[in-house]
Amino acid sequence: MKICFHLVVWACLCSYFHASAGIITGTVLDHQKQPVEFATITLLKATDSSLVKGEFTDQSGTFVFEQVNEGNYIVTVAGIGFETHSIKEVALNSNILQVKLDTITLMPITNELNEVTVVAERPMIQHEHDKMILNISESSIAAGGSVMDALGKAPGVMVDQDGNISLRGKQGVLVMIDDKPTYLSPEQLANQLRAMPADAVSKIEVITNPSARYDAEGNAGIINIVTKKDKNLGLNGSATAGLEHSTAGWSPEAGINLNYRVKK
After folding, report:
1. 3-class SS shares of the chain: helix, strand, coil, % to 5
2. Same domain, 75 and 144
3. Under a CB-based contact definition with an 8 Å cutoff, are residues 106 and 114 in contact?
4. How do strand 62-69 and strand 21-30 relate by DSSP bridges?
5. φ, ψ for residue 2, nearest 5 deg
6. Which residues constitute the domain of residue 155?
7. Which residues contact 162 (CB under 8 A, 6 or more apart)?
8. Which residues make Cβ contacts (< 8 Å) with residue 243, sequence separation at least 6?
9. Alpha carbon separation from 34 to 57, 77, 104, 106, 110 (Å, rounded)
10. Predicted pLDDT of residue 213
11. CA 182, 183, 186, 192 torsion: positive or negative?
């Protein structure tokens, strides 16, 4: 009887936490009613316009935001050659946890000015060849948070409460730092990313279709954390292995020491 009671309580708790996370979906078309692929979709908090999550549209022009907490949001849509479109007052609450937005139509940019001043500004989220990039440097994402916090905002990346990382719902993600595999256990990696400050990172690259040489290690995709360039900064450490002798005999011992050095 006691076991049954515990199971019922656990099921109720799981249902509660599962129900508190919502989904926002939508479709993006151009003015000729054709799907717009790789349009940048950003989900912002309505209160302060801070980034919650970024995504890209697929071949059908569709995008999905999953595991979205209850609250009020703004959705912005941007595509190369199109005017940016914003949707305000997108709300999730206990009564509405699944929102399907009306079809979003992007209009082409028209040049009406004879003289235009161009200011080069790197977008927060961009698509480049085979990768999606979250630019952290000099953005609000870098303020006070960890790299683990920033990862949760990268396109297609999900981080659960235990620090397990998945890419578009798939486990087995290869996490690299400055193009080098970390070779850490999931627990060690989670601890390391929580210890790394986000302001030490320049960008996070997400590769959903890695080349053949990464298939064995990162069959779900690759996340490459690119740090700011400074020879005195970055991830470093050492590993030791050997034998220890005691009254009980010989026993193996091993250890690993990792740290991340930042400016003071």
Report:
1. 15, 45, 40
2. no
3. no
4. antiparallel
5. -65, -40
6. 119-264
7. 190
8. 250, 251, 252, 253
9. 13, 15, 11, 10, 19
10. 65
11. negative
Check residue 2 and give its pLDDT.
Answer: 47
Residue labelled with tokens 């979709």? 41
Query: What are phi and psi for residue 238, nearest 5 degrees?
Result: -150, 160
- Same-domain check for residues 164 and 250: yes
Question: Which of the residues in the chain have pLDDT under 50?
Answer: 1-11, 13-19, 113, 231, 238-246, 255
Last residue of some domain: 54, 85, 111?
Answer: 111
Burial class for 150, CB neighbours closer than 10 Å (0-12, 13-18, 19+): buried
Q: Angle at CA 137, nearest 5°, toward 131 and 141?
A: 90
What's the pLDDT score for residue 117?
52
- Coil, strand or helix at 149: helix
Q: How far apart are CA 25 and CA 27, in angstroms?
A: 7
Specify whether 7 is located in the same domain as 79.
yes
Give pLDDT, residue 143: 79
Q: Which helix (H) or strand (E) holds 11?
A: helix 2-19
Structure tokens at 77: 């849509």
- CA gap 84, 247 in Å, rounded: 72
User: Residues 91, 180: one domain?
Assistant: no
pLDDT of residue 17: 44
From 111, 143, 159, the end of a domain falls on 111
Report the alpha-carbon distance of residue 19 to residue 228 in Å, rounded.
39
- Claim to verify: residue 107 and residue 152 sit in the same structural domain: no
Sequence-ordered list of residues with C-beta below 8 angstroms from that of 31, at least 6 positions apart, any chain: 105, 106, 107, 108
Note whether 73 and 183 are same-domain residues. Answer: no
